[in-house]
């Protein structure tokens, strides 16, 4: 009976844990990738909606996997969040983005803030501010050229800590953007807690942006809400000329999307910065 129990256990074990094992292997690969320099930041410009001038740059991580090629962050960021690797990976992202932005400035390219996406777990680390300070000091980047993109998830973990951290960032001159605005349940109530510098209207609303659509009404009102609160508005995922025209009519400040540029490697971003204004 004892023997049988053991066998049963083994069968159960092997069939139920394939997924866990895959996850384990992937996590191991992701850690190794950090040492092997397989991660790379791509950059996407944020533009003035009226002039096409580059007013910001968002850093977006990619994984150059030796066998799989370029892996998108939606494939590995969720696992990095689950395992806690996001803290180490996230530090690398901030460092790399700040260093790159400083390099561009030193080359005499126009100075714009670089935005970095920060997971809730990373943002809520006790020493998060300390790391930001250290990275800014090490790279020599002036705080106002760094922006932190967060989602409302950070408030769910611990409101008080989140608000304090945001205040400390802004005190230093680091800007805060509220990403994916409108997708969560508490986007609006978030605005009562804290005055962010920028709201990024989620792509899903922009996708549905034709006159007399629901999306149109929502975007129109989010923009006027933001204006009333003196918060900048960026529309994400702008792909079509028609969307840009509607956004201009609605007085949206800034746009980001494939219409102007996909995320590109640093070298290509330097070229775009050299042009300054995109057609
Ligand atoms: P996000 O922060 O909302 O970034 C915008 C995503 O939309 C990016 O996908 C970008 O490439 C894509 N995008 C931009 N314009 C367009 C457009 O016109 N059309 C379409 N279809 N897509 C557009 P990406 O680079 O795959 O990143 C996906 C998500 O992964 C990001 O969403 C962000 O939440 C996360 N992420 C990316 N890099 C990092 C990072 O360094 N750290 C953390 N924590 N998360 C990251
Ligand atoms: Ca973002
Ligand atoms: Ca977003
Ligand atoms: Ca998103």
Q: Can you walk through the features of this model?
A:
With 279 residues, the protein is α/β, with parallel strands linked by helices. Helices cover 53% and strands 19% of the residues. It has helices at residues 2-16, 18-35, 73-83, 85-106, 120-123, 128-139, 153-157, 159-172, 187-193, 203-207, 214-228, 241-249, 266-275; strands at residues 39-48, 54-65, 69-71, 114-117, 146-150, 175-181, 198-201, 232-235, 254-255, 264-265. It has an 8-stranded mixed beta barrel with strand order 1-2-4-5-6-7-8-9, surrounded by 4 helices. α9 links the parallel β6 (175-181) and β7. The protein starts with a helix and ends with a helix. The protein binds ligand C2E and calcium ion (3 copies).
Q: Judging from the principal axes of the Cα atoms, what is the shape? A: globular
Secondary-structure element sequence?
Answer: HHEEEHHEHHEHHEHEHHEHEEH
Average pLDDT, all residues: 91
What fraction of the residues are assigned to beta strands by DSSP? 15-25%
Give me the side-by-side strand order of the main sheet.
Answer: 1-2-4-5-6-7-8-9
Q: Into which percent range does the helicity of residues fall?
A: 40-55%
Radius of gyration: 21 Å
**Quantity of strands, as a count:** 10
Ligands present:
ligand C2E, calcium ion
* Cα-to-Cα separation, first versus last residue: 76 Å
Tell me about the largest β-sheet: 8 strands, mixed, barrel
Number of DSSP helical runs: 13
SS-based class: alpha/beta
């Amino acid at each position: 009976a004892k023997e049988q129990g053991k066998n049963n256990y083994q069968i159960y074990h092997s069939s139920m844990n394939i997924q866990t094992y895959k996850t384990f292997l992937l996590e191991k690969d992701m850690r190794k990738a950090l040492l092997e320099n397989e991660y790379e930041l791509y950059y996407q410009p944020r533009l003035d909606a009226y002039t096409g001038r580059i007013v910001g740059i968002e850093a977006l991580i990619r994984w150059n996997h030796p066998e799989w090629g370029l892996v998108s962050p939606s494939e590995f960021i969720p696992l990095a969040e689950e395992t806690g690797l996001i803290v180490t990976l996230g530090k690398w992202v901030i460092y790399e983005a700040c260093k790159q932005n400083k390099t561009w400035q030193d080359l005499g390219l126009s100075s714009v803030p670089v935005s970095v996406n920060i997971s809730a777990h990373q943002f809520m680390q006790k020493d998060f501010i300390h790391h930001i300070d250290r990275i800014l000091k090490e790279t020599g980047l002036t705080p106002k050229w760094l922006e932190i993109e967060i989602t409302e998830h950070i408030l769910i973990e611990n409101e008080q800590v989140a608000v304090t951290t945001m205040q400390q960032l802004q005190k230093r001159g680091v800007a805060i953007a509220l990403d994916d605005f409108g997708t969560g349940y508490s986007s609006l109530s978030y605005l009562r807690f804290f005055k962010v510098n920028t709201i990024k209207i989620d792509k899903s609303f922009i996708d549905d942006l034709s006159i007399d659509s629901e999306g149109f009404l929502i975007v129109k009102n989010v923009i006027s809400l933001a204006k009333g609160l003196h918060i900048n508005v960026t529309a994400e995922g702008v792909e079509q000329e028609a969307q840009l025209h509607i956004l201009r009519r609605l007085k949206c400040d800034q746009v980001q999307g494939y219409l102007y540029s996909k995320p590109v490697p640093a070298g290509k971003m330097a070229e775009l910065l050299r042009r300054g204004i995109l057609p």
